[in-house]
């Protein structure tokens, strides 16, 4: 199996180019990445079987691609197929279920072309924020910051009009320093959700003319002036990385 690579790009370069920083020889895809300490990142990978990730595993690596020894750290990831949040203990190299809740569930109907439940995850303050692709929700609940266990009720912040599908679904999201959330929404939108709950479409997205098609993930630049959006394949374009100005 040739494996899959994780790459980096410098968006400020005159001619941005992809550089390989890690290779996962036993994976067909990598589904998530998160900081795991200074200069370290954690990535979840596995083998593709439809929407199921067979034999998932966690790698800790430096930006030079060197795989690190396990460290005493707990990471959370979304099990979108089984509708739960998984706890990875990199010190004991064990995996366990951190949270199960109906708000995380996907669709058990095998004929649904997009059955995924809980998808994007971010911790902010005492809360774990999440998107649910099948249920069309962006929500949050309080957690124990040491174990990841759920300690408060689920709050739904945004609910899409049902039914969901490839042209109506939430994917990943991020926050800016002011607490605004930016959520990728298929088919062609990134929405902004303020701390007060005001929802709007980010200019430059949400139109057929926009190059943003099937947005899958989003990040805010360090100076808080730009969004960087990754997109997937669609009938109209191939996947790519785009930037959108959000502040002067």
3D structure, described in words:
The chain contains no helices and 19 strands. It is an all-beta fold and 248 residues long. A hairpin with a 5-residue loop joins strand 15 and strand 16. It is globular and about 45 Å long.
Note the topology.
Blueprint: E1 4-8, E2 19-24, E3 29-35, E4 40-49, E5 52-62, E6 74-79, E7 84-89, E8 94-100, E9 118-124, E10 127-132, E11 137-142, E12 155-159, E13 169-175, E14 181-186, E15 189-193, E16 199-201, E17 215-220, E18 226-231, E19 240-245
Antiparallel strand pairs: 1-2, 3-4, 4-5, 6-7, 7-8, 9-10, 10-11, 11-12, 13-14, 14-15, 15-16, 17-18, 18-19
Organism: Rhypophila decipiens
InterPro entries: 6-blade_b-propeller_TolB-like, Hetero-Diels-Alderase-like
Protein name: SMP-30/Gluconolactonase/LRE-like region domain-containing protein
Structural class: mainly beta
Q: Count the strands?
A: 19
CATH topology of the domain at 166-248: Thrombin, subunit H
Cα separation of the termini = 47 Å
- Which CATH architecture of the domain at 166-248? Beta Barrel
Oligomer: single chain
The CATH class of the domain at 166-248, by name, is Mainly Beta
> Which stretches of 5+ consecutive residues score pLDDT under 50?
none
Run of helices and strands: EEEEEEEEEEEEEEEEEEE
Radius of gyration: 18 Å
State the helicity in percent bands.
Answer: under 10%
The biggest sheet amounts to: 4 strands, antiparallel
The side-by-side strand order for the widest beta sheet comes to 9-10-11-12
| Count of helical regions | 0
């Amino acid at each position: 199996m040739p494996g899959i690579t994780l790459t980096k790009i410098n968006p400020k370069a005159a001619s941005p180019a992809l550089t390989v920083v890690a290779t996962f020889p036993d994976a067909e895809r990598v589904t998530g990445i998160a900081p795991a300490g200074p200069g370290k990142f954690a990535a979840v990978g596995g083998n593709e079987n439809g929407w199921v990730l067979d034999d998932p595993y966690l790698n800790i690596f430096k930006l030079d691609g060197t795989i690190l020894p396990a460290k005493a750290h707990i990471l959370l990831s979304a099990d979108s197929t089984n509708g739960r949040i998984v706890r990875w203990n990199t010190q004991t190299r064990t995996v366990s279920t951190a949270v199960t809740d109906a708000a995380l569930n996907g669709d058990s109907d095998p004929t649904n072309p997009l059955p995924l439940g809980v998808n994007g995850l971010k911790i902010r303050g005492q809360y774990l924020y999440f998107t649910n692709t099948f249920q069309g929700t962006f929500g949050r609940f309080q957690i124990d910051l040491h174990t990841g266990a759920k300690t408060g009720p689920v709050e739904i912040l945004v609910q899409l009009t049902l039914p969901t599908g490839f042209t109506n679904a939430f994917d990943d999201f991020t926050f800016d320093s002011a607490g605004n959330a930016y959520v990728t929404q298929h088919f062609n939108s990134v929405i902004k959700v303020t701390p007060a709950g005001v929802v709007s479409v980010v200019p430059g997205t949400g139109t057929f003319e926009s190059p943003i098609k099937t947005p899958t993930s989003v990040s805010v630049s360090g100076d808080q002036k730009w969004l960087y959006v990754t997109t997937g394949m669609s009938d109209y374009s191939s996947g790519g990385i785009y930037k959108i100005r959000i502040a002067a």
